[in-house]
Amino acid sequence: MTGLAEKVLALGVAALAQLPQPHEVQASQASADPDSIHVLVNRQNPLQPVDYSPDDLVEVEVRTSAEEPVLLRMEAAESAEELFETAAEEGVTLAATSGYRSFDAQSELYSARYAEHGLEPTDEFAARPGYSEHQTGLALDVISIDNPECILGECFHETPEYEWLETSAQDFGFVIRYPEGAEDITGFAFEPWHLRYVGTETAAEVTEYELTLEEYWRQPAAPEYDSAEPNLR
Ligand SMILES: [Zn+2]
């Protein structure tokens, strides 16, 4: 090795040593444990076991637009209740429309669509059973009561409710899980209404750096499923 090459190499190593290490800047790492609030679920990471169900589900005591009670894991439910309460105090009226969905419920939802529309439109519309964040009990879909035309529609992002969530959801441990323009990473188009609970420390960092969970946890992008066909029962 020439003297110059050695110098360049030494410089490179010095520069690398100055970079912050992941554990120093991050509040959390991705988990494969379905009971962790940091479990990563996407098209490359199904829940394990695939029919996982949390054992601490409780009803979220907030205004809902659902016929059935909206359930979340206890920690996420308590935080969601605080979020809704604070939003209301600040003049923002949210309602919950969907929380925990079991493997069987997701199967039903997916299968009905699949039978009618086939694979591709169904994959765009809903996660395959075992691949939905709603099955973790940590994901919550919300709506704006005053803007019923935007229920589970992209125009939700133009409502005052979304504007409030964009700046405040992280204070309650939630992130906007499927941000605009990140479909190639998350596998989902913009879903301004879909909140994911990760705890306040992680939510603060993810929001501050404007990252997806895949990026924040330094995990591969998950635009596609590995298997051609869904695992339906
Ligand atoms: Zn959702």
Automatic annotation (TrEMBL):
Pfam families in alphabetical order: VanY
GO annotation, biological process: proteolysis
Domain D-alanyl-D-alanine carboxypeptidase-like core: 71-199
Transmembrane intervals: none
Keyword Hydrolase: yes
Protein keywords: Carboxypeptidase, Hydrolase, Protease
Gene Ontology molecular-function annotations: carboxypeptidase activity
Name by which UniProt lists this protein: D-alanyl-D-alanine carboxypeptidase family protein
Organism name: Nesterenkonia sphaerica
